[in-house]
Write a sequence for this structure.
């Protein structure tokens, strides 16, 4: 834990480095970003990490992390995004993490040899194959596809599921049936398999102030890991009897250190840990630092011990709850009001620090999730630390939004 004096020093340094900027604005600490990339690569134990672009949503930072040791390839979230990243030389190995129904984009993929060899589509249903074949009935070369495996834990069957509702493919029989369907179609070629264990990688195992809940989560995750490792290995072995695989992808920021131990895994996926958003503070094994945050100006002092900020209603996706709200980061001891929370136009906050803030001061917050912050800002100001310890904005780079792209 950082001492109070260290936090005050960090706040002063950050405010000084960005004093020429008008809030609201977003920053990424490039020193922390690089340190997080190094930490994730070390946790991966030499298993390469494919960067989850939805957690970064900035081409310059994607290029930056792909230049770091231990990272290779991109896990995109839509096909149009993948086409854009491939055509702008961000990566020549991009897997689209979710199935697409965009036939226009599929047709473009089929008709561009350079992009076609760089992009792999996700499938988990023969109807995905039908759609690809209809959009590209005679590509010069087959379109690459990856089978998405359901990684949820279902200890008592489908009625008790821990994990995301992703794929209907759960067993070796399901997987080999789809692999054979792929083999029979000249329009597609099987490249890999993906299985994302959301109940492990995306659920913090050390919730603040709830130690018993943490114990329960860790035990459930332990059992889920054991079941998935066996099932994933059996699925991969069965598919390899039908077709070769270039890659087997698994994991996420919250499970890099454990998923990397599975012999069946050839690569991992991670992205959130590069920014270290607030939800990822609740993992015992997370060693990453807060890198991305945003500043809001104080516009009112409506009552003693209270300030009002401009905007701030930036909830994260997922099941609604207070844990989806941005987290006040600096100065310390600021809290939302129970009745108003984070507002679209203004956000009141109370606490000890509010007594020392005046109109025009800044409050720094962290988004609950990673890349969704970039849907609120057109650019990210990159802050770095010089050899003498001084901090400054060394670059300003556009987010996807700032480049005019909304891929969802």
């Amino acid at each position: 834990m950082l001492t109070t004096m260290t936090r005050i020093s960090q706040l002063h340094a950050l405010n000084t480095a960005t004093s020429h900027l008008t809030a609201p604005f977003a920053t990424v600490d490039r020193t922390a970003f690089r340190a997080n990339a190094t930490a994730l690569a070390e946790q991966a134990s030499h298993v390469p990490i494919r960067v989850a672009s939805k957690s970064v949503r900035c081409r310059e930072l994607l290029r930056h992390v792909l230049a770091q040791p231990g990272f290779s390839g991109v896990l995109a979230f839509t096909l149009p995004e993948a086409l854009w990243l491939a055509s702008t030389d961000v990566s020549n190995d991009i897997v689209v993490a979710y199935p697409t129904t965009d036939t226009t984009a599929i047709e473009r993929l089929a008709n561009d040899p350079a992009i076609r060899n760089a992009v792999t589509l996700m499938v988990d249903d023969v109807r995905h194959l039908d759609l690809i074949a209809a959009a590209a009935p005679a590509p010069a070369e087959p379109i690459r596809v990856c089978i998405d495996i359901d990684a949820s834990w279902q200890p008592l069957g489908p009625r008790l599921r821990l994990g995301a509702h992703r794929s209907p493919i759960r067993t070796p029989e399901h997987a080999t049936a789809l692999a054979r369907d792929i083999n029979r179609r000249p329009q597609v070629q099987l490249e890999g398999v993906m299985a994302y264990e959301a109940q492990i990688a995306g659920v913090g195992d050390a919730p603040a102030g709830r130690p018993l809940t943490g114990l329960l989560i860790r035990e459930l995750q332990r059992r889920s890991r054991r079941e998935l490792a066996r099932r994933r290995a059996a699925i991969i072995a069965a598919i390899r009897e039908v077709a070769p695989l270039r890659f087997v992808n698994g994991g996420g920021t919250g499970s890099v250190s454990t998923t990397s131990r599975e012999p069946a895994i050839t690569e991992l996926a991670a992205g959130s840990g590069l920014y270290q958003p607030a939800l990822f503070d609740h993992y015992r094994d997370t060693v990453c630092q807060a890198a991305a945050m945003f500043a809001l100006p104080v516009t009112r002092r409506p009552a003693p011990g209270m300030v009002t900020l401009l905007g701030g209603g930036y909830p994260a996706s997922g099941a609604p709850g207070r844990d989806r709200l941005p987290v006040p980061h600096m100065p310390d001891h600021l809290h939302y009001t129970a009745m108003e929370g984070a507002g679209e136009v203004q956000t009141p906050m109370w606490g000890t620090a509010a007594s020392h803030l005046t109109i025009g001061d800044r409050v720094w917050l962290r988004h609950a999730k990673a890349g969704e912050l970039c849907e609120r800002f057109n650019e990210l100001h990159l802050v770095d630390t010089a050899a003498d310890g001084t901090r400054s904005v060394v670059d300003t780079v556009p987010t996807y939004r700032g480049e005019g792209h909304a891929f969802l």
In short: The chain is about 30% helix and 25% strand. Residues 2 and 8 are 10 Å apart (CA to CA). The first strand starts at residue 25 and ends at 29. The radius of gyration is 22 Å.
